[in-house]
Write a structure and sequence with these properties.
Layout lengths: L11 H7 L1 H22 L6 E5 L3 H17 L3 E3 L2 H6 L11 E7 L5 H13 L4 E6 L5 H6 L5 E5 L13 H13 L6 H13 L1 H10 L4 E5 L3 H16 L5 E5 L16 E6 L4 H18 L4 E4 L9 E3 L9 H22 L32
Helix pairs in contact: 2-7, 2-8, 3-7, 3-10, 3-12, 7-12, 8-12, 9-12, 10-12
Organism: Amycolatopsis vancoresmycina DSM 44592
Protein name: Tagatose-6-phosphate ketose/aldose isomerase
GO molecular function, one term: carbohydrate derivative binding
Length: about 375
């Protein structure tokens, strides 16, 4: 699958999935120009780092938090804007200053602007790093030029025009890693991404050909955020006709395993971390016993996974676990696209009646009044 969307038709969604390896190189250049300003935001010791966004943008934070924490040597928290807006005092728990990293495709979601404004009001010394695909969006305009704020606008082609976020997800995740100085060989990442896309139509069609009613995505550590993004892509592009479910390899046994039936296909994202991978392989073998080899797909090196279908995804050197997630998500995106097409759905506009929208609608932001301290 190249940028033309070979094997998946000529939808905008297919093109935006296929263009990602090429866009990663341009994302790296955009971040390089902003690095001196970003370094100033990190200058205050003891500052909490909170990664935020809504939906897919929230999952960006979940994917990159672990590698950022390891690189920076301090905790990094991923908290969705939807949680911040609904319960801001769950975030503002002490007097430590916060660096709020906001991810947004458009920056026009009501919660994106409200979460940043709320924390700015409740947290003395709050600083902002906005990573967005739309410099004209409300979030970027709100913080561009503001004291203690840096806005990193990614290349225009990363601002997906299709319904589902694809290029914007991987672009913002890569930008976050590079912004904080995590070592990523972007050229090797792009080469690996191109290789994954070359065979994507074959593997994705095998999944859609099984006519799943439920797609279970399992991942551990940073790949749990990837699994959640994969399930969301499945729901969005199939209009909910294929139910996407996400969990961790270990957590799945604690009740969610009840979802398995004869129309379920399970996808296990194998971690590049050797310790974590053991648990992923364990659940893959167990699922093969439950569903059969044809209804279990392992993304990565399939060694020791009980005969499940293998979707090879390389793990280049100098690419952290979160970087590997950007390769593995290509499997999820193309699977969701293949299932959408198999159902006769238009992936660029799966909800022509407007039941679900690219930019969330119908959200009322209520004024937050802090409780009086007695």
């Amino acid at each position: 699958m190249h940028s033309s969307g070979r094997g998946f038709g000529d939808s905008r969604t297919a093109r935006e999935i296929g263009q990602q390896p090429a866009t990663w190189l341009r994302v790296a250049e955009a971040v390089r120009r902003a690095r001196p300003e970003i370094a100033e935001l990190l200058g205050l010791p003891g500052r909490r780092i909170v990664l935020t966004g809504a939906g897919t943008s929230a999952f960006v934070g979940e994917v990159v938090a672990r590698d950022l924490a390891r690189h920076l040597g301090r905790p990094v928290e991923a908290i969705a804007t939807t949680d911040i807006v609904a319960d801001p005092l769950a975030v503002v728990v002490d007097e430590r200053p916060i660096l709020l990293v906001s991810f947004a495709r458009s920056g026009n979601s009501p919660e994106s602007v409200a979460a940043a404004d709320l924390l700015d009001r409740l947290t003395p010394g709050l600083r902002h790093l906005v990573i967005t695909c739309d410099p004209a969006g409300r979030l970027a305009r709100r913080w561009s030029g503001a004291a203690g704020a840096v806005v990193v606008a990614l290349p225009d082609e990363v601002n997906d025009r299709g319904f589902a976020m694809t290029s914007s997800f991987t672009g913002m995740a890569l930008a976050a890693l590079l912004a904080f100085g995590v070592d990523v060989d972007v050229e090797a990442l792009a080469r690996a991404g191109t290789a994954v896309l070359e065979d994507a139509a074959e593997h994705a069609s095998a999944v859609s050909g099984a006519k799943p009613a439920r797609l279970v995505f399992l991942g551990s550590g940073p790949l749990l955020g990837l699994a959640r993004e994969a399930a969301l892509k499945c729901l969005e592009l199939t209009r909910g006709e294929v139910v996407g479910i996400a969990d961790s390899a270990l957590g799945f046994r604690h009740g969610p395993k009840s979802v398995l039936d004869e129309r379920t296909v399970a996808v296990v994202f194998l971690s590049a971390d050797p310790h974590t991978r053991r648990y992923d392989a364990d659940i893959a073998r167990e699922l093969v016993q439950s569903l059969g080899e044809e209804r279990v797909v392992v993304v990565g090196d399939g060694t020791g996974t009980g005969g499940a279908r293998v979707w090879p995804v390389p793990s280049p050197s100098r690419v952290p676990v979160a970087g590997y997630a950007l390769l593995a998500v290509l499997a999820a995106q193309t699977t969701a696209l293949a299932c959408s097409l198999a159902l006769g759905i238009t992936p660029d506009n799966p909800f022509p009646g407007g039941e679900v929208n690219r930019v969330v609608q119908g959200v009322v932001i209520h004024e937050f009044v802090p409780p009086e301290v007695s």
